Amino acid sequence: MRQVIHSSGPRLIVSTLAVLATLIASIGSTAASQSTPSTNVRYEVLDLGTLGGANSRGNGLNAKGHVVGESELGATAGTPSVMPVGQAPPTVTFLWKDGQMINVGTLGGPTSRAASINDSDEIAGEADTADGNRHAFLWQNGKVTDLGTLGGDQSAAIGINNHGQITGLSTTAPAKRSATQVRTRLSGRVER
User: Fold this and answer.
1) Helix ranges (DSSP H) in the chain
2) Count of CB atoms within 10 A of residue 15's CB?
3) What is the pLDDT of residues 124-154, one digit of tens each?
4) Which of left, alpha, beta for 126 (phi over 0: left; psi -120 to 50: alpha)?
5) Which string of DSSP letters, residue by residue, matches 8-63?
6) Residue 24: what pLDDT?
7) Which has the closest alpha carbon to 184: 149, 116, 138, 129?
8) Pairing state of beta strands 155-160 and 176-184?
9) pTM
10) How far apart (Å, rounded) are the C-alpha atoms in residues 32 and 129?
């Protein structure tokens, strides 16, 4: 579904749930920053869809207009179509480009969450591992790479820049967290 809304403010590409809140926030901040509102600027609101579930949300956007976020999955074998009260359905990272939502995957566990995307379409985020921990990941060229931890059992990537440098956090020992920076080379090899 594509809607075009005329208003004064920047072009927005957002997922279904964030449309109203984003428009209200943008209109308010634009009105405050401009003495005379422009009538020539348009909003383009796109419904990015989901990966079969009821909800999705965008978490990052690059200069190409490609969006990363997380989407609920539809019911699959072994997954109830209605979740028990207080339990959220699994969500996985998506990359939306060229009008298609792509399931980026996980690190063997049920969920993943994208935090950031750069202009090379490299995605940084966090995902559940098969043993139930959460680790930072890098997705590039169709492959998810576990970035590991700094000795603890949990980590998360928070951002990635256009040089492939990733920032995040990691436990170093139980209940201790440390800020981290991870670098990648163009070959895709991860250095710590």
Assistant:
1) 19-33
2) 24
3) 999 999 999 999 999 999 999 999 999 899 9
4) beta
5) SS------GGGHHHHHHHHHHHHHHH-SS--SS-EEEEE----BEEEEEEEEEE-T
6) 38
7) 138
8) unpaired
9) 0.68
10) 45
